[in-house]
Design a protein that fits this description.
Strand order of the largest sheet of chain B: 6-7-8-3-9-10
Largest sheet of chain B: 6 strands, mixed
Distance between the termini of chain A: 25 Å
Strand content of chain A: 15-25%
Oligomer: heterodimer
Shape of chain A: elongated
Structural class of chain A: alpha+beta
Number of helices of chain B: 8
Mean pLDDT of chain A: 87
CATH architecture of chain B: 3-Layer(aba) Sandwich
Helix content of chain A: 55-70%
Order of helices and strands of chain B: EEEHEEHEHHHEHEHEEH
Low-confidence stretches of chain B: 1-12
Distance between the termini of chain B: 34 Å
CATH superfamily of chain B: P-loop containing nucleotide triphosphate hydrolases
Chain lengths: 851, 253
């Protein structure tokens, strides 16, 4: 029986391959994801290990509380007087102090950057080679006001030793002479990152850390363990500093990257899962169709003494074999996809470090297990269906499968399944206290159930739906079109199953489009509500903080009526870490806020040294009213006591302000090297070319600062969302491609099944063109069915999400919806190409004799 | 259904198949059609019985009921002394493995297996190994010795039916059912296949029930039963082709 199953599979090569593609793609995405993230992790691991090579212990500033992960706040620096004390410790062989951070290289007034990769700068001490991770390739180590740059950047920008280049970090741009080029010690490529090195005093000036250090790295004397060294250093540490072993520091540095990579991994795996889920529909459907076509064969096996169990097992074995082959192929394709994903991220401006592809054993095992399991599970229903083939079918022409025992419960069952799915989604969205995992789990499972339920229900609507969707074909396609419509309706179960695979992909893209449209609409609304007009100044990449000096320079521009610089960072407030912001009195003339409890725009001017305003939900959840006292602690450990003098109601799309906002003056007292998130400027005459030119002239020393009108500001802020959106669409396109193969498969099997009928049609005068048109129209009707149901489902799910999430309003992305519908038609047309050609090529005579 | 008569019947020691009062009705109420209206039948061991009749006479239905492929509306069927009309699917499966062989009009070979694999398929399904000597003799008898490794698509219709006959004989079933075995073959090949069927009865004592509408096929049988409108209307023994034709004409077909 095993032989029968396997040989049969080989005999139906085309079908087997088409079925397997569905699994290959899903497994490839899973493999590709693991390869990508493991490779990046490996590369980062290599980088951090290299950085701390030779370092036994590190001292860093210690934040007063654990910081959130948004990157706008870093640990505070500490006084450099600690360095000689550490050097004098008995077990310290050597120690080096350093500062570092983001340092933008500026060439011809433009920031040098490659994709969204970081621009890193730090101090180097060439006299201590054991603690230096850079190697000089050309020129000399930097002196005062000199810079060394990584060789890759030097080559890409054609830089020369002796040339002058602008560097901007936490202050205005400094002009520096390139003293040489360096190579990062590890073998790892750093992705698109730029590296620059300075001597310590220059770096301290650049990063505004005069007399301060971000980190001390110490090397132990021979025979002293890192742990012992750390213990020894700990005894002399001042407050707000901490010591770690070199290894622990490397791990801690890698933690942020790793948690991001883990997120990326889960995120991509989810799409692999979706593709496999869609693939399981394709497999179940193809196997079901072939079982119908193999009725006589299966019945013959029964008459020869095969039990139901044997028949069932033969189908499952076939599924197992397809799953195994497809998974192995998928792993191979996945390795290629790993490379492709690197390129994809590169393309959307996110160059990743790459140190060669990493294929872990875990990747292979997970990919194999998941691929095989999904295929086998998908083959279960067809396998049970096969057991219903009666032996008598061996002796009869065209006998039909008797309905299963549970057939009569099917409509109610699938309706219940759908209802349960929606109930779970709604529960996940609206129930309290589920936690992120609970919400995601309940929504994920709910959505799966909805898809399964709707696909089962769809069989009942397939006839009327195909009638409606097939109307244009029937009207304009002549006899071929009319036949196509009838064909789409004659096996509603099959049409519905085929369409369902496409439905899933389209439901998800629609859902994503609805959410994106919702976010965009609410954000646009919020900006329009809050900010009358004028110019905004942000970093070139729209989200990095910019030096205060840039805002100050902008304020001196002729014609400026008011400027509001918004600073931001983590703060500890009422025993929790929150995003806090600061703004100057200029806010009164810039922002149009909705104040509660009698507040008005004078709140901005009254903030002073001890005033604060909060947003409505924070005030509500912490029982704050006007006059409530608050203490705000910065990561430096410094704190300030403030009183609430205003409570505002932010629009749906949010505001530039955190939960608590204080005055910029107060902020600068407790935060180290404060920076602006945004600056909003109001100028005489509103938005004019002259105003813009004046602002840009004033900001010449800050090439990383970007002047934008309100409209540009909105577009720029949304552009990040659009980039994410495009990645989502590309990833979801994969499941649409899987469903495309599903349609191809069904059509080929259908053409095969109708060979005699097609021969008859050709014999009575149907042209090849008409045959092709007939198949194509049937394909488009099927695809449109999937499209219509999918888009509708996506809109409903999107509506539910929009109803739940505070900062999203429901918006119908009608342009995308039309595009998706057209895409469904295109999928239908493309899927039909090959089957239609096959059908048209049939030899009339042979087709008629076909048995 | 049909259990009431089970205890009353004395089974002749040499009966391979015994049917009593077989009725098969399709549909219900006004539109009900009776394909069989009470048929009694014994097939003795080693006997070749032909069931003849025009299309719609119920001959296929009779075979389906005798072979346990279909259940009678009323009546009983015993194969090798076992009442089969009330068996569940797994018991029927075992019955087919041990006692029943089939030859079909359209051969029903599995296209992905070669001739020999097709022949031993019933054994493979039952998890048994073929007796090599028996297999060789069977293939020799069927003239397939040099066709063992050929796929069905590489064989002529007659050769395919030989493979099918060998497949039905390989388990030495208590009873072999042949459903229009020559219905899809030309006249010359039909003759060869009929000779083989007769020879297998003579050589191996293979009890066989053959359904056919061809006089020539029926003429090889030891006994011929004529069916009309669901009832046996005539029985002949050792009849020639002319005798058969004469009866058929008299029956108005």
């Amino acid at each position: 029986m095993i032989r029968v199953a396997l040989r049969g599979m080989l005999r139906r090569k085309l079908r087997t391959v088409l079925t397997a593609i569905a699994i290959v793609l899903g497994v490839a995405l899973i493999t590709g994801t693991y390869v990508l993230t493991d490779s990046i992790k490996g590369a980062f691991g290599g980088i951090f290990t290299q950085v701390y090579r030779g370092t036994d212990a590190t001292v860093t500033g210690k934040s007063a509380f654990s910081l959130s992960n948004n990157g706008t706040t870093t640990a505070p620096p500490f006084g450099q007087s600690l360095l000689p004390k550490i050097r004098n410790l008995p077990d310290v062989a050597d120690a080096v102090g350093g500062v570092g951070g983001n340092a933008h290289l500026i060439l011809d007034g433009k920031v040098v950057h490659f994709g969204g990769a970081p621009n890193l700068g730090f101090s180097v001490d060439p006299k201590r080679p054991a603690l230096n991770s850079l190697a000089l390739v050309e020129g000399n180590w930097p002196g005062t006001n000199q810079i060394v740059i990584d060789q890759a950047t030097g080559n890409k920008k054609d830089l020369k030793v002796g040339q002058t280049i602008g560097v901007q970090a936490n202050g205005p741009t400094l002009q520096m002479r390139i003293s040489g080029f360096v190579h990062f010690g590890g073998a790892s490529s750093l992705g698109g990152a730029t590296l620059s090195g300075f001597n310590l005093p220059t770096a301290q000036r650049l990063f505004q850390r005069i007399g301060k250090l971000d980190q001390i790295r110490a090397k132990a004397k021979p025979g002293v363990t890192p742990a012992k060294l750390a213990d020894e250093i700990r005894t002399i540490l001042p407050p707000h500093t901490q010591v770690r072993t070199g290894q622990a520091q490397a791990k801690s540095d890698a933690k942020d990257t790793e948690s991001f990579l883990n997120f990326l991994q889960d995120f991509l795996l989810a799409f692999g899962g979706i593709a496999l889920f869609v693939g399981s529909f394709v497999i179940a459907n193809s196997l079901s169709i072939t079982i119908t076509q193999r009725t006589r064969e299966l019945a013959t096996l029964r008459t020869l003494g095969a039990s139901r169990r044997q028949v069932r097992r033969s189908i499952v074995i076939e599924g197992f074999a397809i799953g195994t082959l497809a998974s192995i192929l998928g792993i191979a394709v996945g390795l290629g996809l790993g490379v492709g994903l690197f390129k994809l991220f590169d393309l959307v401006g996110f160059t990743l470090p790459n140190n060669g592809l990493v294929l872990h054993q875990r990747t292979v095992i997970v990919a194999l297990v998941v691929g095989i399991l999904v295929t086998v599970i998908a083959s279960l229903r067809p396998a049970f269906r096969a057991t219903r083939v009666p032996p008598i079918a061996a002796a009869r022409e065209g006998s039909e499968l008797p309905p299963g025992r549970f057939a009569k419960y099917r409509p109610i069952g699938s309706a219940l399944l759908t209802a349960l799915g929606f109930a779970l989604v709604i529960y996940g969205l609206f129930a309290h206290g589920l936690g992120t995992k609970g919400v995601l789990l309940s929504m994920g499972v709910g959505t799966l159930l909805i898809f399964i339920g709707v696909s089962l229900l769809a069989a009942r609507f397939a006839r009327p739906l195909a009638w409606v969707l097939g109307a244009p074909a029937s009207r304009f396609g002549g006899a071929a079109g009319a036949l196509a419509r009838d064909n789409a309706r004659r096996n509603p179960q099959r049409t519905a199953s085929t369409a369902s695979a496409l439905m899933i992909g389209l439901a998800l893209v629609t859902l994503v489009a609805v959410i994106a449209a919702g976010i965009t609409k609410s954000f646009r609304g919020a900006v329009n509500d809050l900010w009358v007009s004028g110019y905004a100044i942000t970093a070139q990449n729209n989200f990095d903080p910019i030096p205060i000096a840039a805002g100050n320079a902008a304020a001196r521009t002729p014609g400026v009526q008011a400027i509001a610089n918004v600073r931001g960072g983590d703060a500890e407030i009422l025993n929790g870490v929150h995003q806090a912001t600061a703004v100057g009195p200029g806010g009164a003339q810039i922002f149009n806020m909705t104040w509660l409890d009698g507040g008005n725009s004078t709140v901005f001017t009254r903030l002073g040294a001890h005033g604060a305003f909060t947003d409505k939900s924070f005030a509500k959840s912490h029982n704050l009213t006007i006059g409530s006292p608050l203490t705000l602690t910065a990561p430096t450990g410094k704190s300030i006591d403030v009183k609430v003098i205003g409570i505002f109601d932010p629009p749906t799309g949010g505001s530039p302000f955190g939960v608590v906002t204080i005055s910029d003056k107060a902020w600068d007292k407790i935060y180290d090297t404060p920076q602006n998130l945004f600056s909003f400027v109001r100028m005489k005459g509103g938005e004019t070319d002259a105003d813009r030119a004046a602002l840009e002239r004033q900001l010449k020393a800050f090439p990383n600062a970007k002047v934008q009108t309100k409209k540009e500001f909105i577009d720029n802020q949304i552009s990040g969302l659009n980039a994410i959106l495009n990645v989502l669409f590309v990833l979801l396109a994969l499941s649409v491609i899987v469903s495309l193969f599903g349609i191809v498969n069904t059509l080929i099997l259908t053409v095969f099944e109708r060979t005699r009928e097609l021969g008859m049609l050709r014999a009575i005068g149907m042209t090849r063109r008409q045959v092709r048109r007939m198949i194509r129209a049937e394909s488009v009707i099927t695809a449109l069915m999937g499209g219509v149901i999918g888009i509708a489902l996506g809109l409903v799910l999107g509506g539910l999400l929009a109803a739940r999430i505070d900062f999203i309003v429901f918006a119908l992305p009608w342009k995308q919806v039309i595009f998706f519908a057209i895409a469904a038609v295109v999928v239908g047309v493309v899927a039909a190409i090959f089957p239609a050609r096959r059908a048209a090529k049939l030899n009339v005579l042979e087709a008629l004799q076909y048995e | 259904m049909g259990e009431q008569s089970k205890g009353d019947l004395a089974v002749p020691a040499n009966a391979a198949v015994e049917a009593r009062g077989l009725v098969r009705r399709y549909g219900e109420g006004e539109t009900a059609v009776e394909a069989l209206r009470g048929v009694d039948l014994d097939v003795r061991s080693g006997e070749l019985v032909a069931v003849m009749g025009p299309s719609g006479s119920g001959k296929s239905t009779l075979m389906h009921l005798l072979a346990g492929l279909d259940k009678p509306t009323a009546g009983t069927v015993q194969i090798a002394g076992t009442e089969i009309t009330n068996l569940d699917d797994s018991k029927l499966t075992r019955l087919r493995r041990e006692h029943i062989g089939f030859v079909f009009q359209f051969f029903n070979l599995l296209p992905m297996l070669d001739a020999e694999e097709n022949v031993i398929l019933p054994l493979s399904i039952a998890g048994e190994k073929p007796d090599k000597a028996w297999l060789d003799s069977l293939l020799g008898q069927m003239g397939l010795t040099d066709r063992r490794r050929h796929r069905p698509s590489e064989l002529s219709g007659g050769q395919q039916q030989r493979v099918a006959i060998a497949r039905s004989l390989v388990t030495r079933p208590t009873i072999l059912f042949a459903d229009e075995p020559t219905g899809n073959l030309d006249s010359k090949t039909s003759g060869e296949i009929l000779e083989l069927m007769r020879a297998s009865v003579d050589a191996y004592g293979q009890t066989t029930v053959m359904v056919t509408h061809e006089a020539r096929a029926a003429a090889i049988a030891d006994r011929i039963l004529f069916l009309e409108d669901g009832s046996i209307v005539k029985e002949l023994r050792g009849a020639s082709q002319q005798d058969v034709l004469a009866v058929m004409n008299s029956l108005g077909t």
